[in-house]
Structures are given as structure tokens and as C-alpha cells.
């Protein structure tokens, strides 16, 4: 065949000289990566593996659940719902007009009994129900630049409908600020004033970098509709901690916001007298108002959910592990039996 | 419509016809942007996203920043646009290279070197040996005194053997110098894409010749992209230039290829769109109840598509090129690769190596080469040659001179042969080794050196091989004794019946059969002495016949027929054409995997069938049956088509391999008039052989299957396959030997792409469901729980990286796949990616959304329910779940998988810490705050356990008690036990070879022998099919399969 080569190679020259070098350069370099030959661990779901995984989860989760539950139970919480009780009987049928009437007496007194010893700090929250702070138009109705920086005080474009009042920009503008919660609470214990520390209830980061110390309320609550609390125009926004707390919108329609801290221990059966001013209008949307005094644990406030959920998940995993074990023992099945392959069952029949 | 081409007229034609600039470009600088955007937006998916993105510009209804949609949208578009631009640029470069190539063209009577693109119609172009033809030319002169030249037309029709072209009679004998000044007119049809026809007339102006009109045929032309071979120079008149050449006309426009996965995703996007509308309606009504007048608009926005947002964008960005040493010119191919149902393959150079070797022969009933497998080393034969046994000498003489080979003496004195066909080359070389050396050809005088003595023959007539006659005829006159001898070689069915009455042809039939069973290509050699007067009489008729204009070929054949009788059959030769390594095995496995194989070849039927047999393409009787569709007229084709269809329907239930064979002519008719029947046939048949098909028929076939919604893969190597491949979804170039590797790749790719889109679907849905749930507790107002930055990052980064690595996931090892190729069948037709698995993922995403949402809002209730915190808790919950979902779906963990899955989780925290450190960002300090809370971590673990527990349990249950086929194989593979092979999986036929066939001891393993007498009893084929044997069958080899649409014919 040697003498044959010229003719065949002559035929190949044209195509080879253009294609060959390129083809070579295209060939990827060998590496374990390109050849998909990286050392690999290939776990499969063997009964032992799966059962022990479930077992492990239940072993870890049940103690955590117990601990969480205990932590939650350790938290002492006093909750007082007052939005109905604080409306005089004669206004019970028309709560909205009561709250909108500026002349009615909004002062209301509540007595709270401490069920267990409460260690300081005791957090004072107000809780609103059915209040959709997460509503889209509500959430967006604010101007962060205005809050932060005095120079952009007239940046109210995003604040509709509370952007301007009497032709002037509002500072702080927007629905959120406008609807600032304005019930007030005064606590006394045995006729002694119980000091509520309202400093440091907001996030430090908010005070430092979201709310400017040179921004002062201006033209606020001057419109036709008064939404909520009025702000002292002489106090900069960075010190208006109630506003700062309120502006951290809640994601859920039921939420608590920090009102202040009581920095002393409360003993069991002590009775706290709360003098509250019931100003905030939740009546037009059937919102509930609660006053909450609560201690705290490493897990936060009183919330049994995590503990119960952990116990449930742990229990279910245990149950699954158990039932898998039983099924495995009762009806063992060999893994990877090729006779399960359909083409092995009826040869040629695909 | 005709065009008149004035030869060598420098002025006239410039405006009439385009210049020779070729352009395969899809875009120009100006139209790139609009055209590309138009193409991208012609996908429903992209329209949908555009709609969404536009809606987001309307700030009233937009919960998230428009940038979160526009950013990725623009990015993705930019990526695919740049890919297109790059492809187009490369096309442009190769065009440019071709356009700027320098060629010799006559200008003002002088030969000049100009760029190919400046050739105008009417110019005379000079070509040297091995030059590429820059445009369609009508030959007017060659270096050969006979006016012949040889061209390689592989870029046109894929046939790598050399074709002869001849100058028109009118130009015969024009002096070299005068060719520069030649003037005339060519009347030729307007450009078309038929590469087999060129009906034109040439008239030369005085002083060259009288005013006779000389008819031109395709024989007188050399077409663009052919190569001039074995001819020192040739010159011709440009008649078609630029994109108007035959090749240019048949070039398809590269369309953007939409993969099956894309199509599926488009459908799903449609479904999601409908789903959205429904949700919008429901929520809109709910919102109204909630006394929100704008709720409808707002909810439109809420539902706004977060789903689906990035469903396939991920998958399009992935490049699978790393896999095998192959080059995927289209990065989207691999999805389809896994779902291929039809493979259409070219034969020559793809399945076979195309290296012909003379192996055995049978001379006058004596078998040579049977013992050693190589007749050239058979001492019996060598002795016979040395002893000048007359039979053997005659045999060798025919071998040496009954051909169109041209011997050339090299400087060293060795003789080289230039052959048009590999078969002839093999025969002449074998004869030379057996001391029958074909020394020289001088005009009509042949010189043969036999055992030291030189014998001269004068060639009187030659009739080259035609596929109809299946034999070649040479009439020579022995210069020594003046005897006139007719030599013939051809297929057995074309020779043996014409043996003289007394001759026993039984041994030859046996020989042919035996050789055919070994997969060798057989040729019968015969001769007959002619009487002087018989020849003279015949010669006149022959001359007359060869000068007719109508039906010339047929007339000549008829005349020759008169001479072809009373042959003395000398013997049978057997030539081996090796299949490429591993071809039979690969085809066998692929066929087991349920992939239908079609062989499309320009070859003749017998050759095609033979190759098909030897590479397990079709099974021998009685397991297989071969049906033939033929016929010259519509009726015949129709009848035979119906007959085949009927047989096909009957046998479709039997486990029998039924294949049909169709030739180009019948195919043409079938595709034109009986498209429906043919389509049905195509669907019924698992195997088909289409022979003598043209490139555009290949393309038509592919289109036919595509229109039936089958995934088709075309494999080819030549320019003739380019069109077929253009029509296709998938283009690939792979190294043939890696065929097995490809299989394994198929599954991996398939799995990962299925996983990919399901996963994208899942991860988007999780977020969407959470958003929907959140809308119920935010007054159905459409507040987004997540901020825009988080969403964008979630979609683009956090959840894409693990998926990128999942591409490298390996379900099954190579070995397992090879043992159980059927698994591929299971993967076909999108069985892994179908609405029900999507429903599964849908359920999973719903469940996970519920888990994340419920746990988050309960664990972060009351005083903790701050928006930013809650949103981050929910998002990290999703991220944790994603990580575990990916981990659970990953089959093999390499370091990369670990890195991507867990590194991604870490990256999430790192990135969020960084963002949390920026005072200006909305989530300033949030992440630090969260990470300090024990409750955050406890919540995360809870989400993971609650989310993954049931999923794991379910998966375990199904894996163990309702395993899919892949699962079972995985288990088998990793339990380490031996994988039992039952049923029809084994054994490979090759292993039986040595025990059964005594003849094939030295046969290389590349053949799989065929034991049964093939096809002999099937109704529509005959034993004749076995006799192969045509000088022009096999082309020179291109051992690599390669094709790519960017590498166009020009460049090939």
C-alpha cells in the first residue's frame, strides 16, 4: 500500500491542512475535571443511612425542643388588651367617633398583676392586631433620604398621600410617620411612679445612620387628617425613638413594638397600675391594642412555637426512623437487583 | 430564464451579475441589534419576560425595583447576543479568507493575481493543482492533452473520489496562449442548486471556431469549492459567482436552534402565564373584597412572574464543552443529545475508514489467501505467479489494466498510482506486488511489466463504471499479437450471468458468498477475446452512440451490452474496507438503547447494505428483514412503498429487525408524492438505509423527522452533510472512537439538564409561593417580602452556582451504561423531563414554601416581626433548603460539588454580611443582628429538618420500593456487586467470532461476521445485494467525524 499513499494523501491535503491544526487545538487538555473523573463519593440511600439520619435528627431535635420550650416558659409575660375596655360604655357602639372626638377623655386606668417574679429589664410593648404595616402602599410611603439628611428635606416624591401639607413638604413625610402610634402609658407601683426608660429602645444603627441628627420635624401632622402622634419640632429625628421604632415596619399584621424598658425587678402579685391615654384609632379597622410587659430569654420573648416545632419534628423523625426500620425488617428488599429492570423482565420487549 | 455570459468581456457583465464575494453572515453591523433582538424575542419566553419587565417600569404596580428584572434580562440578552455576534464574526472571518484568496484571472488578455472576490462572471480563471475552485466555472482548457481534469467534489456531495471533467469539444485543442484571448458566449440557466445538472451552450467567436453551438453538461464544469486534483492546470470561464453558485444556492441560512428543552420551557412558561392570570383573577377578587380598589392591578404585579423568571436562563449559560474531546458549536446541544431518537449518519469516512486493502482472491476455482487472510502472502499464489500459470496471469492482467488508474513515475523511479477509486487503487497495487506492474500509460498505450517482460496494450475503448451497469469495460489491443481483448470487472450479478455457456460459475458464486460473509467487497473479473471484424462493427456503433446528444449514456450502455456476453470469468477479488474501530459495537449499543439509526449515503445500494450489515446496522436473516423501495416511476415507487409499509405494519409487533432501503430516486418521488406514507414508514422503521441521496435530500429527511417531533441527530463529515446538519437541532463533532463515551455523556447531560430546569422551576416557585402567602397577610396588596437586591442575587447567584456544578454530576459510571444501554431508551423522549416530574417539583416547591413561610412567621412573630429581618430569615431558609435539595439530588459528590453546595451557602452569608455593612443599604446591620440570635440558627435548622425530612423519606421510599431504572442501576453499581446481565444485553457478537469463523482468524476485530446467508429469502431483495464491488464506492477516508455549521463548506 505504500505506493498508494501519494494519491490518497493528495486527496486529503486540501481538507486536512485547514482542518487538522484547528481540530488539534480544539481538543481539550486532559484533566480530571474535563474528563469528569474527579474522585467522587457516591452516596446512595441505603436503609441504614436513611434510618440513622432520621434517628440522629430526632436525637438532636428533641432535647433542643425541650430546652427551647423551657426557655419560652421561663419568660414572664403580662398581656392586657385594652382597646375596648378603655372606651367608655356610652361610646361602645360608636368607638370611632369616640376616638376621633378631640374633646372626649381618653385617660384610662388598668391594673396588671405580676404573676411571677419578673427580672429586669422588663420590656414594655404595645401590640397591634390587624394592622397591616406591611401593606404595599404603606410600606413604600416614606422617604429615607429625607429622614437621613436635612438637605433633602423636600424629597417627598415617594410619600404620597402624605407628602405635602398646606403646600409645604412634610418632615417626616409618608403614611408610616403620619400614622405614628400615640397611646401613652404611665406605670405606677404602689402609687410610686414606675420609671420607663424610653432611651435606647430603637436600633442604634437606625439612630446613627438612618435618621439624621440635623433633621427636625417640620409641618408634621398639619394636614386635614391627623394620623397619630405629633412630634416635637425641636427634637431631631435621631432622638425621636418612638418614631424610629415605628418606622421599622412589621412584616406581619400582628406585631409588637417596644415602648420602653422598666429597669427593676417586679415581684409576684405586685399590682401595676397603668394610666394610659387611649389616643390611637384602631377602631376604624377593628384593630386590637394590647399592652405587653415581658421579660426575655436567650431565645427572645415568650414563644412556644420553636419548642413545639422541634419536638414535633424530632418526634416525627423518630417515628419515621422506627417505621422504616420495621418496614426494612419485615419486607427487606435488595437494592440494585437488576431483575427489577423492565428490559430484564421481558427481554426484547421495549 | 437564462443568462448570457460573454467570455473574457471585461466590461459588460459587471453590473448584471454579482461579484464573487461570498457571505455566510447572518448579520451586518447595522442590522445586528434589531435582527438579533427580533430572534431572541421570537421566543415566547423572552416575550414574556419583556412584558414583565415593561410592567415593572410602571412603578405603581411594582413591588420590587425594575432593575431586579431588567438587570438580568439585559445581561442574559447581552450574553446570547455576544455569542451570536462571535459566531457570526467567525463566519465572517472564514468568508473573508475565502474572498481574499488570490487567484489567477485573465484581465485584458494578461493573467493577473487578483482576490477571489473580484472575479466577475465571464472572467477566465486559472487553477493549479490542488487549488480550490473559487466559483462555478465552465472548463475551457486543461494541461491534459485529452482535455481531462480531475476534481474532488467532497465539499459538494461528500464523495471524496476524484471525478473527471472534460473540456467542451469546441475548446479541444486550443493553444495554451490562445486561451487568454478566447472570446465567446455561454448561454446558461440562471443559478440553481442542482449540482447534477448544467444545461448550457457554448459558442466561441471567430477566429477560434466556426459558429457551431457546443452543448455543455455538468461534465464540462467545475463547481465552487471543489479542488483540482492530479491536473497541472485548468482554466475555465466563471459563470456563477459569489452566493449565486450552485453551492451558494444550496446553502441554507443558519437558523437559531431551539433545543427540545427550550421548547419544553416555552410551553411551561405558557402554562405559568396562564397560572398567573388565574392567580391574578383570584387575588384580584380577594383584593376587592378587602376593599382595595387597586388590588387588581397590584396583584397582577404581585404574581408578576417571579415564577419562571429565570427558568431557563441558567441552563443556557452553561457550557458543556468540558465533557469529551468534542467541540460543541452550539452550546445548547447537550440537552437534546440525551433525547435523541433518530441518528442519521453518513457512511463514508464516518462508519468506514475507507482504506481498501486487497485481501483474498479466487482464481479459476482456487482460493488464495484463505489461510493467512492475505493473498499477497499466500505462497500458493506466489508460486502460481512465478510459474506463470496462464489463469493467474490473465487474472492479474485484468487486475492491472481494467481500470482508470494513471501510473506516474516518481523521481526515485517508484511508480505511484493516481486512482479515482480506492478499489482500483487496491487492485493495481496488489497486482504490482504480484509482479504484474502497471508501468506506464502513454496516450492510449499501456505498459505492463510482467515477470520482467514488458507487454504493451493499446486501449481502444473504455466505458467507466456506472451504477446501472455495475461493471466496467475496457477494450484493449495486445500490441504484440494484435489480439483484441475485452476486459471487464464488476459486481458478481453483472458479470457471472454473462459467462460463456460452458463455464462453471459455481465456485465463483461460492467465493463471492464466502467473501461477502466476511464483509469483504467483491469484484469479479472476466475477459473475452474479440474478433477483429466483431470489434470493428461494434466500434462504429460505439462511436455513433457516444456522439449522440439525447440519452447518450443509455445508448452507449446499450451498445456495450452487445459485446458483453460469453465472458470467461477469471476470478473474484476480495477487498477489505475496514470499518472504523468500535463502530459495530457503538451502533449495537445505541440501537439497544432504542435509538433509531438511519444511514444516509451517496453510495450505491449494495455497498450501503453491505456496510450496514457489517456494522450491525441491520441484522442478518432470520432476525432481520430488509425491504426495498425502488422503482423508476411514480407508480412503481408507490406500489413498492405500500408493499413495504404493509410488511412493516405486520412485522412491527414481532421482535424482528425490519429495515428498509430506499434509493435517491425513489426517495425523491416518495418525498414528493407520498410524503404521508413515507412518514409513517419512517416512524415504523427502526432502521433505514438511504442510498444515492443528495445533500438536499438528506436535509429533507431530517426535516421530515423533525416535523414528526422526533429528536434527530445527524453525523457527518463532509460538506454534503452541512445542509442536513443545518436543519438539525443538534450539531456535534466528536471523535468516533469516543462513541461509547458519548453515551455515558448523554445520560449525564440529560439528567443534569432535566434537573437543571426542574430545579430552576423549583427555586423560582418557592420564592413565588412565599410571596403569594405573604400577600395574604399583607392585605393582598402585593408587597414583596424580599427586597430587590436579594431577589436578584437569589436568582442569579445563590441558586445557580450549585446547578452549574450539577452538570458534572454523574449518575452512572461508564461501565454500567455500556452494559445497560437500554437505560438510554428510558431517557429518551424527555421521559425524565415531563409534566409529571414537573408536578413533583411543583409540589416540593409548594411544600418548601409552606415550611419556610409558616416557620418564619411563627418563629419571628410579635416583637421580632421586623420586615427586613423576617425577609432575611425567609430567604436564608430558602437558601438552606436549596443547598440540601441540591445535595439530595446530586448523585456523586466530587470536591466541586461540595465546594459549590456548601461554598454557596457560605457565600450567601459573606455577601449578606458585606451588604449589611453598608449603611446606605436597606438591610444595614440586619445580617449581623440575625447571626447573633440563637433563635435564627434554631429556625434555620428547623426549616431544614422540616423541609427535607419528608422529601428524604419520600425519596428513600421510592428509591427503595419503587426504584426507577436509573436508581436500580445506581444501587447495583454502588453496592459493588457484580451487575448481572440478563436478557438481550449480552453477548457482544464479536466475542463469538473466533470460535465460529475459521476464515477470520487473522481478521482484525473490526468486522462482525455475518453467518447466515443474508437477505436471500427476503421478498424484495436478492442475493445479489451481497455482491458489492464497484470501483467508485468508497471515498478517501476522513477518519474523524466532524461537522460544524460554522465551519462551512467553504472552509472545509
Automatic annotation (TrEMBL), chain A:
Membrane topology (UniProt): Multi-pass membrane protein
Residues spanning the membrane: 49-71, 308-330
The keyword Transmembrane helix is assigned to this record: yes
Intracellular or extracellular location(s): Membrane
Ranges of biased composition (kind: Low complexity): 7-19
Segments of this protein annotated with the region Disordered: 1-32
Assigned keywords, A-Z: Membrane, Transmembrane, Transmembrane helix
Keyword Iron-sulfur: no
UniProt family annotation: Belongs to the CDC50/LEM3 family.
Protein name as catalogued: ALA-interacting subunit
Species assigned in the record: Hibiscus sabdariffa
Automatic annotation (TrEMBL), chain B:
Compositional bias of kind Low complexity: 1036-1052
Membrane-spanning intervals of the chain: 44-61, 268-290, 759-777, 789-808, 841-862, 869-888, 900-924, 936-957
Membrane-protein topology: Multi-pass membrane protein
Segments forming domain P-type ATPase N-terminal: 5-70
UniProt entry tagged with the keyword Nucleus: no
Biased composition (Polar residues): 1017-1028
Annotated Pfam families: Cation_ATPase, E1-E2_ATPase, PhoLip_ATPase_C, PhoLip_ATPase_N
Alphabetized InterPro entries for the sequence: ATPase_P-typ_cyto_dom_N, ATPase_P-typ_P_site, ATPase_P-typ_TM_dom_sf, ATPase_P-typ_transduc_dom_A_sf, ATPase_P-type_domA, HAD-like_sf, HAD_sf, P-type_ATPase_N
Limits of the P-type ATPase A domain: 101-162
Keyword ATP-binding set for record: no
Region called Disordered, residue ranges: 993-1052
Descriptive protein name: Phospholipid-transporting ATPase
Top-level division of the source organism's lineage: Eukaryota
Alphabetic keyword roster: Magnesium, Membrane, Metal-binding, Transmembrane, Transmembrane helix
Cellular localization per UniProt: Membrane
Location, primary (coarse class): membrane
Annotated P-type ATPase C-terminal domain residues: 754-964
Amino acid at each position: 500500500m505504500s505506493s498508494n499513499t501519494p494519491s490518497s494523501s493528495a486527496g486529503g491535503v486540501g481538507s486536512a491542512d485547514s482542518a487538522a491544526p484547528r481540530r488539534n487545538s480544539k481538543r481539550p487538555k486532559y484533566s480530571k475535571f474535563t474528563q469528569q473523573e474527579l474522585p467522587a463519593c457516591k452516596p446512595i440511600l441505603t436503609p441504614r443511612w436513611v434510618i440513622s439520619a432520621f434517628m440522629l435528627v430526632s436525637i438532636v431535635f428533641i432535647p433542643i425542643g425541650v430546652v427551647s420550650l423551657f426557655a419560652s416558659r421561663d419568660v414572664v409575660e403580662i398581656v392586657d388588651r385594652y382597646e375596648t375596655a378603655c372606651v367608655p360604655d356610652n361610646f361602645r357602639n360608636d368607638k370611632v367617633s369616640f376616638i376621633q372626638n378631640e374633646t372626649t377623655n381618653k385617660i384610662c386606668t388598668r391594673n396588671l398583676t405580676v404573676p411571677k417574679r419578673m427580672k429586669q429589664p422588663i420590656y414594655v410593648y404595645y401590640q397591634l392586631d390587624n394592622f397591616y404595616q406591611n401593606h404595599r402602599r404603606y410600606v413604600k410611603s416614606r422617604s429615607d433620604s429625607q429622614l437621613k439628611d436635612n438637605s433633602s428635606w423636600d424629597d417627598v416624591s415617594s410619600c404620597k398621600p402624605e407628602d405635602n401639607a398646606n403646600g409645604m413638604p412634610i418632615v417626616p413625610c409618608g403614611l408610616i410617620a403620619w400614622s405614628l402610634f400615640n397611646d401613652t402609658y404611665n406605670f405606677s407601683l404602689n402609687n410610686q411612679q414606675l420609671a420607663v426608660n424610653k432611651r435606647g429602645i430603637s436600633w442604634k444603627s437606625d439612630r446613627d445612620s438612618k435618621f439624621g441628627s440635623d433633621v427636625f420635624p417640620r409641618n408634621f401632622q398639619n394636614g386635614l387628617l391627623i394620623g397619630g402622634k405629633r412630634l416635637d419640632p425641636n427634637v431631631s429625628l435621631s432622638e425621636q425613638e418612638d418614631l424610629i421604632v415605628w418606622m421599622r415596619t412589621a412584616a406581619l399584621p400582628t406585631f409588637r413594638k417596644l415602648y420602653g424598658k422598666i429597669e427593676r425587678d417586679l415581684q409576684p402579685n405586685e399590682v401595676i397600675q397603668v394610666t394610659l391615654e387611649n389616643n390611637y384609632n384602631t377602631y376604624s379597622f377593628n384593630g386590637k391594642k394590647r399592652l405587653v410587659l415581658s421579660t426575655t430569654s436567650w431565645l427572645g420573648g415568650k414563644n412556644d412555637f420553636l419548642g413545639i416545632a422541634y419536638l414535633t419534628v424530632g418526634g416525627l423523625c423518630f417515628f419515621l426512623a422506627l417505621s422504616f426500620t420495621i418496614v426494612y425488617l419485615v419486607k427487606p428488599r435488595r437494592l440494585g437487583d437488576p431483575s427489577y429492570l423492565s428490559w430484564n423482565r421481558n427481554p426484547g420487549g421495549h | 430564464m437564462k443568462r448570457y455570459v460573454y467570455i473574457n468581456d471585461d466590461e459588460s457583465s459587471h453590473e448584471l451579475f454579482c461579484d464573487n464575494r461570498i457571505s455566510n453572515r447572518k448579520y451586518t453591523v447595522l442590522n445586528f441589534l434589531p435582527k438579533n433582538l427580533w430572534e431572541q424575542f421570537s421566543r415566547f419566553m423572552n416575550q414574556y419576560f419583556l412584558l414583565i419587565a415593561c410592567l415593572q417600569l410602571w412603578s405603581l404596580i411594582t413591588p420590587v425595583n425594575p432593575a431586579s428584572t431588567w438587570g438580568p434580562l439585559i445581561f442574559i440578552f447581552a450574553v446570547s447576543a455576544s455569542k451570536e455576534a462571535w459566531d457570526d464574526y467567525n463566519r465572517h472571518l472564514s468568508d473573508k479568507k475565502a474572498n481574499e484568496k488570490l487567484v489567477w484571472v485573465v484581465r485584458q488578455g494578461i493573467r493577473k493575481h487578483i482576490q477571489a472576490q473580484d472575479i466577475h462572471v465571464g472572467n477566465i480563471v486559472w487553477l493549479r493543482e490542488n487549488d480550490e475552485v473559487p466559483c462555478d466555472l465552465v472548463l475551457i482548457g486543461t494541461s491534459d492533452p485529452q482535455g481531462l481534469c480531475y476534481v474532488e467534489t467532497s465539499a459538494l456531495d461528500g464523495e471524496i473520489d476524484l471525478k473527471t471533467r472534460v473540456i467542451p469539444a469546441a475548446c479541444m485543442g486550443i493553444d495554451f496562449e490562445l486561451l487568454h484571448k478566447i472570446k465567446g458566449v455561454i448561454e446558461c440557466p440562471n443559478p440553481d442548486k442542482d449540482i447534477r445538472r448544467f444545461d448550457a451552450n457554448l459558442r466561441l467567436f471567430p477566429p477560434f471556431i466556426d459558429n457551431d453551438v457546443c452543448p455543455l453538461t455538468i461534465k464540462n464544469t467545475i463547481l465552487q469549492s471543489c479542488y483540482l486534483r492530479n491536473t497541472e492546470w485548468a482554466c475555465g470561464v466563471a459563470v456563477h459567482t459569489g452566493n449565486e453558485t450552485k453551492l451558494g444556492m444550496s446553502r441554507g441560512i443558519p437558523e437559531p436552534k431551539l433545543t427540545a428543552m427550550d421548547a419544553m420551557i416555552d410551553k411551561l412558561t405558557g402554562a405559568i402565564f396562564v397560572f398567573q392570570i388565574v392567580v391574578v383573577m383570584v387575588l384580584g377578587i380577594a383584593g376587592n373584597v378587602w376593599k382595595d380598589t387597586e388590588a387588581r392591578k397590584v396583584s397582577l404585579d404581585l404574581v408578576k412572574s417571579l415564577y419562571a423568571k429565570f427558568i431557563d436562563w441558567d441552563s443556557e449559560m452553561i457550557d458543556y464543552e468540558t465533557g469529551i474531546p468534542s467541540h460543541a458549536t452550539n452550546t445548547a446541544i447537550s440537552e437534546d443529545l440525551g433525547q435523541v431518537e433518530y441518528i442519521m449518519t453518513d457512511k463514508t469516512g464516518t462508519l468506514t475508514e475507507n482504506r481498501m486493502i486487497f485481501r483474498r482472491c479466487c482464481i479459476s476455482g482456487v482460493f488464495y489467501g484463505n489461510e493467512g487472510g492475505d493473498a499477497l502472502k499466500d505462497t500458493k499464489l506466489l508460486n502460481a505467479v512465478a510459474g506463470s500459470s496462464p489463469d493467474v496471469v490473465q487474472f492479474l492482467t485484468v487486475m492491472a489494466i481494467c481500470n482508470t488508474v494513471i501510473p506516474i513515475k516518481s523521481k526515485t523511479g517508484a511508480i505511484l498510482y493516481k486512482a479515482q477509486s480506492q478499489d482500483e487503487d487496491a487492485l493495481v497495487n496488489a497486482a504490482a506486488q504480484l509482479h504484474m506492474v502497471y508501468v506506464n500509460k502513454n496516450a492510449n498505450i499501456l505498459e505492463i511489466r510482467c515477470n520482467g517482460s514488458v507487454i504493451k496494450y493499446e486501449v481502444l475503448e473504455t466505458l467507466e463504471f456506472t451504477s446501472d451497469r455495475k461493471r466496467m469495460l475496457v477494450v484493449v489491443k495486445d500490441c504484440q499479437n494484435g489480439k483484441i481483448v475485452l476486459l471487464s470487472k464488476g459486481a458478481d450479478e453483472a458479470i457471472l450471468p454473462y459467462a460463456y455457456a460452458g463455464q462453471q460459475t459455481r465456485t465463483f458464486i461460492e467465493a463471492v458468498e464466502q467473501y461477502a460473509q466476511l464483509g469483504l467487497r467483491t469484484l469479479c473479473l472476466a475477459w473475452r477475446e474479440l474478433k477483429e471484424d466483431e470489434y470493428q462493427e461494434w466500434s462504429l456503433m460505439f462511436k455513433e452512440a457516444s456522439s449522440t446528444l439525447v440519452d447518450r449514456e443509455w445508448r452507449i450502455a446499450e451498445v456495450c451490452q452487445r459485446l458483453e456476453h460469453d465472458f470467461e470469468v477469471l476470478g473474484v477479488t476480495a477487498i477489505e474496507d475496514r470499518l472504523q474501530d468500535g463502530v459495530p459495537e457503538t451502533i449495537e449499543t445505541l440501537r439497544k438503547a432504542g435509538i433509531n439509526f438511519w444511514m444516509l449515503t451517496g453510495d450505491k445500494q449494495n455497498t450501503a447494505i453491505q456496510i450496514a450489515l457489517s456494522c450491525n446496522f441491520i441484522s442478518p436473516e432470520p432476525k432481520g428483514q430488509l425491504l426495498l423501495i425502488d422503482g423508476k416511476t411514480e407508480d412503481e415507487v408507490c406500489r413498492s412503498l405500500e408493499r413495504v409499509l404493509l410488511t412493516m405494519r405486520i412485522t412491527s409487533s414481532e421482535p424482528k429487525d425490519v429495515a428498509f432501503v430506499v434509493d435517491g430516486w425513489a426517495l425523491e418521488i416518495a418525498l414528493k408524492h407520498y410524503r404521508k406514507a413515507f412518514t409513517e414508514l419512517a416512524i415504523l422503521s427502526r432502521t433505514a438505509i438511504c442510498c444515492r441521496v443528495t445533500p438536499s435530500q438528506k436535509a429533507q429527511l431530517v426535516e421530515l423527522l423533525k416535523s414528526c417531533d422526533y429528536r434527530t441527530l445527524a453525523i457527518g463529515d463532509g460538506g454534503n452533510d452541512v445542509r442536513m446538519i443545518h436543519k438539525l437541532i443538534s450539531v456535534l463533532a466528536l471523535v468516533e472512537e469516543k462513541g461509547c463515551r458519548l453515551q455515558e455523556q448523554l445520560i449525564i447531560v440529560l439528567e443534569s439538564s432535566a434537573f437543571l430546569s426542574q430545579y430552576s422551576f423549583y427555586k423560582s416557585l418557592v420564592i413565588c409561593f412565599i410571596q403569594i402567602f405573604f400577600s395574604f397577610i399583607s392585605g393582598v396588596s402585593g408587597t414583596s417580602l424580599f427586597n430587590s437586591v436579594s431577589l436578584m442575587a437569589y436568582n442569579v447567584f445563590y441558586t445557580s452556582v450549585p446547578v452549574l456544578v450539577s452538570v458534572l454530576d454523574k449518575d452512572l459510571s461508564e461501565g454500567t451504561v455500556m452494559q445497560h444501554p437500554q437505560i438510554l431508551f428510558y431517557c429518551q423522549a424527555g421521559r425524565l423531563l415531563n409534566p409529571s416530574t414537573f408536578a413533583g417539583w411543583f409540589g416540593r416547591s409548594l411544600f418548601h414554601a409552606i415550611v419556610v413561610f409558616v416557620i418564619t412567621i411563627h418563629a419571628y412573630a410579635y416583637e421580632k416581626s421586623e420586615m427586613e429581618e423576617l425577609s432575611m430569615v425567609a430567604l436564608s431558609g430558602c437558601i438552606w433548603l436549596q443547598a440540601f435539595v441540591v445535595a439530595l439530588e446530586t448523585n456523586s459528590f466530587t470536591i466541586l460539588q461540595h465546594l459549590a453546595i456548601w461554598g454557596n451557602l457560605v457565600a450567601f452569608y459573606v455577601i449578606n454580611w458585606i451588604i449589611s455593612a453598608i449603611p446606605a443599604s436597606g438591610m444595614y446591620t440586619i445580617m449581623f443582628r440575625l447571626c447573633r440570635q440563637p433563635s435564627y440558627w434554631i429556625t434555620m435548622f428547623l426549616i431544614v429538618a422540616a423541609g427535607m425530612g419528608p422529601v428524604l423519606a419520600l425519596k428513600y421510599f421510592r428509591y427503595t420500593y419503587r426504584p426507577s431504572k436509573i436508581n436500580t442501576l445506581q444501587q447495583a453499581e454502588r453496592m459493588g456487586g457484580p451487575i448481572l446481565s440478563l436478557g438481550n444485553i449480552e453477548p457482544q457478537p464479536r466475542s463469538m467470532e473466533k470460535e465460529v469463523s475459521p476464515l477470520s482468524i487473522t481478521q482484525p476485530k473490526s468486522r462482525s461476521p455475518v453467518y447466515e446467508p443474508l437477505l436471500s429469502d427476503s421478498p424484495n431483495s436478492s442475493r445479489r445485494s451481497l455482491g458489492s464491488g464497484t470501483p467508485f464506492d468508497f471515498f478517501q477516508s476522513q477518519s474523524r467525524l466532524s461537522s460544524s455549521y460554522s465551519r462551512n463548506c467553504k472552509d472545509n
